[in-house]
Automatic annotation (TrEMBL):
InterPro entries: FAD-bd, FAD-dep_Monooxygenase_BioMet, FAD/NAD-bd_sf. Keywords: Monooxygenase, Oxidoreductase. This is 2-polyprenyl-6-methoxyphenol hydroxylase. Signal peptide: none annotated. Residues 257-313 form the FAD-binding domain. GO terms for molecular function: FAD binding; monooxygenase activity. Pfam families: FAD_binding_3.
Amino acid sequence: MRGSAAVIGGGVGGLAVAGGLLRAGWTVTVFERADGLPDVGTGLGIWPSALRALDDLGVGPVARERGRAQPDGAMLRPDGSLIAALDVGRIRRRHGEGVLLLSRPALLGLLAEALPAGTVRFGSPVEDPAVLADGYDVVVGADGIRSATRAAMFGDRYPLRYSGMTAWRGTVSLEVPAGGETWGRGRKFGMTPQAPGVTNWYAAVAAPQGYRPSEGDLAALRRWFGDWHDPVPAVLGRIDPAGLLHHDVHFLPALPSYVRGRWVLVGDAAHAMTPDLGQGACQALIDAVALSQALAAAPDVPSALARYDGLRRGPTQRMAAMATRAGRLAQVRRFVGVRDTALRLALAFGPPG
């Protein structure tokens, strides 16, 4: 089947859907509110299943060329003692490929490069997706955690939920040999090598929704994490306040469907999850391929969207539930020994590759 699709949102899921549908012979227009692609952003871990999705989109080789293999890492306590090792080699042995580290701008860039000029209409926000309904065979909501498409489909019946954690993130000009996370009482600090000489970092603290430290973000981060093991203090010392991002962590409750009529949701618009498993971008890529293949193979739009919903809703909602449980572990302030045991067990299985 071929047809026309409007994709609302030019992030990872939206650009990937556009690429998949164009390869299947569809006509596609992407509506993106930003004026262009970002040139700065934090790092992403692309797991083997998402790398296979990039292969299906024809950009896997470019991604491997521009990314770097994630090295082994560790989950540590604030004094530097080991909770559990992060064995990337085990992932490679299980799936034939490890985890690829790629910055968000790099991933968006390679997905955009695969699209014909003019496919993405930058500076084109869609506040009311209904205005597109009559002009396209399918309207794809790839418009993120605060999706206007989802609101048009379900109203306010499924509001975002606060996870209990507020988070900061950014990059610093410092190279660390390996990534991982350090878990304290109700807070954690993570680092990931992003590029030569650049490290992606993030911090999360259990706090009331809307919490803002009175002394300022950077001063609070240094108070909470400044006496933790190396290289955490060195990372804190390199943070540029101008590039410091702070936001409460929310997630989306399970939706009854990702489809309504000819409207369909992908990525965070469908299953926004906490970042604790590092799977948001990966699941958006897999969504995009599943939707593109369903629309290419089915005889009509309703059966294609039903197939997509059947393929992706269950797995993504299970992944989101796993991420929520992992996030709750990070909020523990008492019985951290029990928490560390639970964390070791969780890492022994890990998310699907």
